[in-house]
Amino acid sequence: MTPVRPASAHPDAASYWMDTAIPAQAAPALTESRSTDVLIVGAGFTGLSTALHLAPSGASTMVIDAHQPGWGASGRNGGQVNPTLKYDPDELIAMFGDRAGRLIHTIATSADQVFDLINHHRIDCNPVRSGWLQVSYKKSGIPALHRRARQWQDRGYFADSLDSMATQRLTGTRAFHGGWIDRRAGSLHPLSYVRGLHQAALAAGAQVFGDSPVTRLSRQGDKWLARLANGARITADQVVLATNGYSDALLPGLSQTILSANSFIIATSALGDKTRHILPSGETLSTAERLLIYLRKEADGRLLLGGRGLFDDPAGAGDFAHIERSMTRIYPDLAPFHYEYRWAGRIAITRDFLPHVHRPAPGMLVALGYNGRGVAAATVMGIHLARLLVNGDETEFPFPITPLRKIPLHGALQHFYISAGVAWYGLLDRLAR
Ligand SMILES: Cc1cc2nc3c(=O)[nH]c(=O)nc-3n(C[C@H](O)[C@H](O)[C@H](O)COP(=O)(O)OP(=O)(O)OC[C@H]3O[C@@H](n4cnc5c(N)ncnc54)[C@H](O)[C@@H]3O)c2cc1C
After folding, report:
1. Probe target for ligand 1 pocket from 84, 240, 244, with the most ligand atoms within 8 Å of CB
2. Of 251, 223, 187, 325, the residue nearest 42 (C-alpha)
3. What's the rounded Cα separation, in Å, for the pair 26 and 152?
4. Tens digits of per-residue pLDDT, 87-121?
5. CB 301 within 8 A of CB 338
6. What pTM, to 2 d.p., does this model score?
7. Which of 85, 129, 140, 385 is the most exposed place for a label (fewest CB within 10 A)?
8. Is residue 43 a contact partner of residue 198, using CB atoms and an 8 Å limit?
9. Do 136 and 176 touch, CB atoms closer than 8 A?
10. Which among 148, 139, 129 has a CA at the least distance from the CA of 187?
11. Which numbered atom of ligand 1 lies nearest the CA of 71?
12. Is the distance from CB of 275 to CB of 301 less than 8 angstroms?
């Protein structure tokens, strides 16, 4: 019998991804002082994609992480490759006018970019391109999802509305009333993908260091000086901060521009044919409600379900009870489930639910805030950050570059966010009963 893994308060708790990923290329700690053209802090999708696309320009490129590459959200997530933002194309046009076109195109083609990169670099990360179902528990939520599908269809993208029968057929449950399928979307093994990006970045000429927290950044003449916890220093012409939900005090005020929230995931034991009727072609699923849950099935029939968790890191299996109840509510016929893995990671939520790019000082770029949808968005962010670093042309850059703006009452809001989450899960549980 497979051992049940205790959920741990430690952020390094074993995940299903850790036990099934391609081998890691170890990133050595940086122990001596160096200089580089571009220093990228954070070795997740954002940082490694930036390095991979920048290094071929000839700029010396160094990525540095406090842990090993992929330790952050990039190696822990649900692996859904969804080419969407929170906002539909029409909403983005209302928000950004003429500039929206570039942003919409960038996001709409972001899954293509991910799967092309995987092909090009032969990354062994189990890519599946069978679409993403966005579904609702509520009948009243369906018209908005059908409008969403139509907006993408009208722009020539591959999407369909789903009525309740089609939704039942694809999800294998009557828990949802309908939704839409985004056929551009897919899934991958996130830790293998980020490890593949690491290898590809090295092959492109970037240097990648791990276990080397950057503790201070300061300006020295027209250069940046980064100090590491072990005393080593890096001098760089340009710095990119790619620290997302793990942003610390390195850039004062940055961590107050986001809500850094935990997303929790559980993985059942292998369920074999018992889940054959669920997501039969390898589609992924998430709910449209604000505090969403997301679901996928692995080749051995195992179900992975994730959702928002507490603000704090999990302290034990009990902290996952709310998402375990969601699983039972959606698939009561398969209960009770046996959970082999429980783990968590941090996402960055922004005040406008859009990814944020900042230039807070000369020679510094910051990109973060994917609001739980960073597999595709952070990958394309890296592509465009690399172009911006090379050509300096902001007019071609698809994401708005905005000043750093702290969230007012940041501390209190974090607490409100948690309370709202708890209330929501409570409501779902009551509905389930
Ligand atoms: C549980 C979970 C499920 C998710 N599911 C999905 C999904 O299915 N689909 C999807 O599209 N998105 C999903 N996301 C979101 C997605 O994972 C993130 O948006 C994406 O990984 C962000 O990548 P990143 O490179 O910007 O940040 P991260 O991968 O979080 O990397 C940030 C890195 O910065 C490093 N760092 C921070 N401070 C310092 C410092 N001072 N010095 C050195 N290094 C530092 C950290 O060690 C970390 O490795 C999920 C996230 C989580 C947590």
Report:
1. 244
2. 251
3. 41
4. 999 999 999 998 999 999 999 999 999 999 999 99
5. no
6. 0.95
7. 140
8. yes
9. yes
10. 129
11. 49
12. yes
